[in-house]
Amino acid sequence: MIQHRPNLDWMLKDLAESVPQTRHVIVLSSDGLRMAQHGTDTDTADRLAAACAGLQSLAGAVSSEFPRSDGRMRMVVIELDGGFFYLMAAGAGAYLAVLADEDVDAGLIGARMRDLVARIGEHLSSPPRHNGQVV
C-alpha cells in the first residue's frame, strides 16, 4: 500500500531560501529513502539520504555511551572543508538533512531546521516498512 504524503518540497525551498549559502535540503526516512528534496537532483538526494541513514545508525551506537540516553539521535553536525552537513530528527522515522557552504550562519540554519521540524513534524514522518511494504 502506498501512502500519500503531502508535497514538502516547497517547505524545504522556504528553508533553503531563508538561509544564504544553503545548498541541499532533503527529508528522508530512517531507512535512507528520500521523501522530499530541494536544491539537488534526484540521484544526489538519493545518495545523501542513504548516507544519512548510516550516520543516524552510528549516532545511535554512540548514544549507548550516555547512561541517560534513549538512543535516539536529535542532531548531527559535520564540518568539512567547504561546508557543513546537518542531520536532524524530524518526526517518527524521518530526518531532515541540509548541506551548506562554509560561510553559512551555522546557528541560523540550526534554528530554521528546528523551526521547520516543529511546524510540520507530523508531516515529516515515515511509517515503518516490512519487506518494502508500509506496515
UniProtKB/TrEMBL annotation:
Top-rank taxon: Bacteria
Family annotation (Gene3D superfamilies): Dynein light chain 2a, cytoplasmic
The Roadblock/LAMTOR2 domain, residue ranges: 9-100
Keyword Membrane appears in the UniProt entry: yes
Keyword hit for Ligase: no
Parts of the chain that traverse the membrane: 76-98
SUPFAM superfamilies assigned to the protein according to its UniProt record, in alphabetical order: Roadblock/LC7 domain
InterPro entries per the UniProt record, alphabetical: Mycobact_SerProt_Inhib_Rv3364c, Roadblock/LAMTOR2_dom
Keywords: Membrane, Transmembrane, Transmembrane helix
Protein name according to UniProt: Roadblock/LC7 domain-containing protein
Species this protein is from: Streptomyces benahoarensis
